[in-house]
Write a structure and sequence with these properties.
heterodimer; A: 355 residues; mainly alpha; ABC transporter involved in vitamin B12 uptake, BtuC; three-stranded antiparallel sheet; 3 strands; 72% helix; B: 283 residues; alpha/beta; Rossmann fold; 2 domains; six-stranded mixed sheet; four-stranded antiparallel sheet; 10 strands; 37% helix
């Protein structure tokens, strides 16, 4: 079972990378080592980094593994964000739940479930399309979700949830106020929970890929007719990938929404979908570990580049182009390959000569 | 009411020119088509296609280029929905089914232009073929429950066993897209066999093979039939292969069957000779 072992080691590296990064961040946060401290702006970026990593990994499930270009991922994120916020507020008002961790976990899963439901509803028409058409329609659905959210109003009155469409006159305290968004949100998201969510996402996605269902999903991507001819239920597996991806994006959205005190639907515009797609493409389509690295680096980069003030987006764009060129260059690819084989050979000679 | 309708039914004779090997005569035929036809915007690609294949028959479907042979395969595997007629697979009408459902009834195929899952390993290709044979649900796959480990192991063993038909078990970890052409064709056959079919359709299995490889393929086709006790139908232009191993041969031209019979009958049939070589000039 050499192949299974290889997979296992590969997955272990991905998990290990995330755990090590988390520990380093924790160390920097504690400030126990002199000179090794995190700046305030970077501290504020910790939860968003987790959010974008989860977004990128979940989008990679649709784009890389299932092979469908989806441009409406931010739509699922917004559904998750607002259902998570509403759940969290309702739990606090109705049950006086003070345990923030439990409340956050329940809110995350609520966000995931509602985004998953949105995924099913959107998936039914969208997954009948292919290629560019699918991309265009997912883009439209992302915008539709945002515009529908602009017309929704939620309030809470003595532990009861009220909801209306287009009518802002609701009793009690407003939780979600249409275009003005959700204000006065309890900021209960933590970096630790973000880290846990990343591990959860990786666990779901990596285990899915190396299973019967994951292989069916990739088979449809590689040769749809052949996949059908061996008895794979194509709509079912396409839907499965799409919904799992949407649900994970919803969880990321809930984490994001509960991290800032006021959230509006405008935060989940088309730009956000594209930004996440950039992470996926840059990290390598179908490459989960790549998505994690790209999302983390590119979320931090604009903060690090603050020193360049006005030019920072320019530098950001240049970095994007350089990385893209470098990762596609055969010259650099062969260099990396020789470096890798050198390292392996070194290890082998070490093993050969224990002295 | 129902009775009255029944009495009004007009009965017509159905043409049945079908032949099956003698050993299969008391078994249910694996495939039966009646008046099968498909039109593409008025063009009748296949018309009035009647065929019966015995349970362990090796059947051949031949014809000049563009005769509609691959279209017949697409009709049988439900890639296309017929505009006329019925396809009966192992005694069950396939009307309204899709390709995946037909596969569950026991039909499997290879493709003229190879359609492997090129980015995946050889073993994964076979495992995908085993999709409906060795199964566990998605949740136990994600949560890595004991059933996952058990079934994955069974899949691994079964796929190596299937690959050993063509002595390919050593290539299990090779990327399917990087295999040589002949090996890709063989892998397609293994993948089709993994679905545990009752009828295996091979679309030009010997295309691009040298005479030696073709010879080997012929032996293997007979071996597969004997080992799995299934029917095999193949499209092929290599007449050595067709005449060498096919029991019943069906000749298609312009979407219609022009001849049916054994190898020797087909070879001496004037209509077939005309379709392939043209009409003899009268002088």
């Amino acid at each position: 079972m050499s192949r299974a072992k290889k997979n296992f080691i590969n997955n272990l590296i991905t998990y290990g990378m995330v755990v090590v990064a988390f520990l380093i961040c924790q160390l920097a946060l504690s400030g126990s080592i002199d000179g090794f401290k995190m700046s305030r702006s970077l501290k504020g970026q910790l939860v968003p980094i987790c959010v974008y990593i989860v977004m990128a990994v979940s989008l990679n499930l649709t784009v890389g593994i299932s092979g469908e270009l989806s441009l409406g991922h931010a739509g699922f994120m917004s559904v998750g964000a607002f259902s998570g916020i509403i759940m969290s507020t309702w739990l606090a008002a109705r049950f006086n739940m003070n345990n923030e961790v439990v409340r956050l976990i329940i809110s995350l899963f609520t966000g995931g479930i509602f985004a998953g439901i949105a995924g099913v509803l959107i998936g039914i028409p969208v997954l009948r399309l292919r290629g560019d058409y699918l991309a265009i329609v997912t883009l439209a659905f992302g915008e539709i979700i945002r515009n529908v959210l602009n017309c929704l109003y939620f309030s809470i009155d003595e532990g009861r949830l009220h909801m209306s469409f287009l009518d802002p006159m609701l009793p009690g305290k407003m939780i979600y106020n249409g275009p003005a968004g959700a204000t006065g949100v309890d900021k209960i998201s933590t970096f630790g929970m973000g880290f846990a969510l990343i591990l959860f996402t990786l666990f779901v996605v990596l285990n899915l890929i190396n299973s019967r269902s994951g292989r069916a999903i990739m088979a449809i991507r590689d040769a749809r007719v052949a996949a059908e001819s061996v008895g794979i239920n194509v709509p079912k597996y396409k839907m499965m990938a799409f919904v799992i991806s949407a649900a994970l994006a919803g969880m990321a959205g809930a984490l994001y929404g509960l991290n800032i005190s006021s959230v509006t639907a405008a935060k989940f515009k088309f730009d956000t979908s594209i930004l996440v797609l950039v992470f996926v493409v840059l990290g390598g389509i179908g490459n989960i570990r790549g998505s994690v690295i790209a999302a983390a680096l590119l979320t931090v980069l604009p903060e690090v580049l603050r020193a360049f003030s006005d030019y920072r987006m320019l530098v950001y764009a240049i970095v994007l182009i350089v990385v893209m060129l470098a990762s596609n260059s055969p010259f650099i690819a062969t260099r990396i390959a020789t470096l890798k084989s050198k390292i392996i050979r070194k290890n082998q000679t070490k093993e050969g000569n224990p002295a | 009411m129902t009775q009255k309708r029944q009495s009004e039914t007009k009965m017509v004779p159905v043409p049945s020119h079908s032949i099956v090997p003698e050993r299969d005569v008391d078994k249910r035929p694996v495939l039966e088509t009646r008046h099968l036809g498909i039109e593409f915007g008025g063009l009748k690609a296949v018309e009035d296609f009647n065929l019966t294949i015995g349970a362990t028959e090796i059947a051949g479907l031949i014809g000049p280029n563009g005769a509609g042979k691959t279209t017949v395969f697409n009709l049988l595997t439900k890639v296309y929905q017929p505009t006329n007629g019925v396809v009966i697979l192992d005694g069950k009408d396939t009307a309204g089914m899709n390709a995946a459902q037909a596969s569950k009834l026991g039909i499997a195929r290879t493709f003229q232009n190879i359609r492997l899952f090129g980015n995946m390993t050889v073993e994964d290709n076979v495992r995908i073929g085993l999709h409906n044979q060795i199964r566990y649900n998605t949740a136990s796959g994600i949560l890595r429950l004991p059933s996952y480990w058990k079934q994955e192991k069974a899949q691994h063993q079964k796929s190596l066993e299937l690959l050993s038909i063509f002595d390919m078990q050593d290539m299990a970890d090779v990327q399917a897209g990087s295999l040589p052409y002949g090996a890709q064709r063989r892998l397609e056959i293994v993948r089709a066999l993994a679905t545990n079919p009752k009828l295996l359709l091979l679309d030009e299995p010997a295309a691009g093979m040298n005479p030696h490889e073709t010879e080997e393929l012929m032996e293997n086709i007979i071996k597969i039939r004997d080992q799995f006790q299934i029917a095999i139908m193949l499209i092929e232009h290599d007449m050595n292969l067709v005449m060498g191993i096919c029991e019943g041969i069906c000749v298609l031209n312009y979407g219609r069957i022009i001849a049916k019979g054994t190898a020797s009958e087909i070879q001496s049939n004037p209509t077939v000779i005309e379709a392939y070589l043209g009409k003899r000039k009268e002088d």
